[in-house]
Amino acid sequence: MNKTNILGFTLIAISLIAVLSSCHDKRSRGLEYAPNMYYPIAYNPDQKNPIFSNGISAQVPPANTTPVGFTRFDEYPNTIDGYLAASENVHNPLPVTSQNLIEGRQLYLAFCGPCHGEKGKGNGHIVELGKYPAPPSYATGNSSRGGKMKDLTDGKIYHTIQYGLNLMGSYASQLSPDERWKVIMYVHELQKGE
Ligand code: HEC
């Protein structure tokens, strides 16, 4: 046999082994190259787990526990009572600093400005396009839940960001509690009007 024949024969033999080894069992995935790239050492969430007594990998957190870095708000439900209780008890923990206000303004412009408008007058660009009814102005409007927009407290605005209100959706999944407080700090500036 010359060199080319040996090479050809080896290639055919390898492919034959690969094909045959993948056929002997219908459930087998055959010969796998570097299997530890497919199968991580850690348990997958849907995998049986001998470490826990119920044998499940994806454990539910124990009752009444709060994940690290998570702020509970379930004592203030999405009701008028929850809104008024938040108004009474929920206050901005962050100090009013120019840095916080700058960040609050940036977040406000990205998340709230499209509807509420750059100056909070209820004339954001989707309102100007005629696609969306104008939200009330922070400085001169009235809240649909009673009272003036300029008197909205920390807790009332936080409650609104958490749950939304009528046409306004919730921003709870977009803004962390810290970010919400910065936005609220900036909304208080807009409530003063110009
Ligand atoms: C998609 C448009 C839209 C966006 C984006 C939006 N809002 Fe609103 N918002 C509204 C509308 C409409 C209302 C009036 C709802 C009503 O009273 O029925 C409103 C009302 C409010 C109120 C008054 C709540 C009250 O108690 O009367 C606050 C405070 C508020 N928004 C804050 C925010 C903040 C903060 C953001 C950004 C995180 C934001 N909104 C983003 C549309 C929007």
Description:
It is a single chain. The longest helix is centred in the first third of the chain and has 19 residues, at 3-21. The protein has helices at 3-21, 80-89, 98-111, 113-116, 125-128, 154-163, 177-191. By secondary structure, it is mainly α. The protein has seven helices and no strands. It has a domain at 80-191: Cytochrome c-like domain (Cytochrome Bc1 Complex, Chain D, domain 2). The mean pLDDT is 90. 39% of the residues lie in helices and 0% in strands. The chain is elongated and about 95 Å long. Helix 2 (80-89) packs across helix 6, helix 3 (98-111) packs across helix 7 (177-191) and helix 6 (154-163) crosses helix 7. It binds heme C (HEC).
Distinct ligands? heme C
At the first level of CATH, what is the class of the domain at 80-191? Mainly Alpha
Radius of gyration, rounded? 30 Å
The CATH H-level homologous superfamily of the domain at 80-191: Cytochrome c-like domain
Strand content: under 5%
**So how many helices?**
7
Mean pLDDT comes to 90
Helix/strand order: HHHHHHH
Do you know the CATH architecture of the domain at 80-191?
A: Orthogonal Bundle
Shape: elongated
Unreliable segments of 5+ consecutive residues: none
- Provide the structure class: mainly alpha
Under CATH, the topology of the domain at 80-191 can be stated as Cytochrome Bc1 Complex, Chain D, domain 2
Described by strand count, sense and barrel closure, the largest sheet is: none
How far from one another are the termini? 93 Å
Helix content: 25-40%
Please report the total strand number as a whole number.
0
